[in-house]
Design goal:
The structure holds 2 protein chains of 2 kinds. By secondary structure, chain A is mainly beta. Chain A has no helices and 12 strands. In chain B, a hairpin with a 5-residue loop joins strand 7 and strand 8. Classes of the chains: A mainly beta, B mainly beta.
Chain lengths: 113, 114
């Protein structure tokens, strides 16, 4: 069975600083994908970044990067140069070869001026 | 350019009433999903479908039924609503290229059962 764990329920970060959101996972599937989504207070799910289990390099998308450590089964999200608009709930998720996407409990990020 | 559309966006039900949530996608995606989101628990998979005419149970299927009669539509039914089904419901779709790279979410349906 798959499992996604986000151990940080909430975090405060100052504007312009970097923040790392932790995510660990467990799966027996050799092929899987790891995702990060942002959910602002308006409620929509916004896709941020994707990492495939066979990808050799860590994924990056603008200010977002995914620190993928396969042996440790971790997929931490790094947000560089935080902005006030980054305040939101962040979810780590894992998709398997059957297409099922499973989510962690989320981390609430508050960016302060 | 609609993507995934959920209707309705808000609904209040009385205990025991029934209702159907509609999810429609215009991206020709094979896979479709229904999730519920409760505070502190992230999104949990209720049911999903890997193609027209197929459905399968997710993590929390009890109290819900689904149908996928047309590829573009995925319906979630509550036959006898209970207060425990008060939640925000999200529909999503994805394309099946091995492990799907992209999931598109609807904007959610906020359901309150009183």
């Amino acid at each position: 069975a798959q499992k996604i764990t986000q151990t940080q329920p909430g975090m405060f970060v100052q504007e312009k600083e970097a923040v790392t959101l932790d995510c660990t996972y467990d799966t027996s599937d050799p092929s899987y994908g790891l995702f990060w989504y942002k959910q602002p207070s308006s409620g929509e799910m916004i896709f941020l970044i994707y990492q495939g289990s066979y990808d050799q390099q860590n994924a990056t998308e603008g200010r977002y990067s995914l620190n993928f450590q396969k042996a440790r089964k971790s997929a931490n999200l790094v947000i560089s140069a935080s902005q006030l608009g980054d305040s939101a709930m962040y979810f780590c998720a894992m998709g398997n070869s059957w297409g099922k996407l499973q989510f962690g409990a989320g981390t609430q990020v508050v960016v302060t001026p | 350019n609609a993507g995934v559309t959920q209707t309705p966006k808000f609904r209040v039900l009385k205990t025991g009433q029934s209702m159907t949530l509609l999810c429609a996608q215009d991206m020709n995606h094979e896979y479709m999903y229904w999730y519920r989101q409760d505070p502190g628990m992230g999104l949990r998979l209720i049911h999903y479908s890997v193609g027209e005419g197929t459905t399968a149970k997710g993590e929390v299927p009890d109290g819900y039924n689904v149908s996928r009669l047309k590829k573009q539509n995925f319906l979630l039914g509550l036959e006898s609503a209970a207060p425990s089904q008060t939640s925000v419901y999200f529909c999503a779709s994805s394309y099946p290229t091995g492990v799907p790279h992209g999931y598109t979410f609807g904007s959610g349906t906020r359901l309150t059962v009183v």
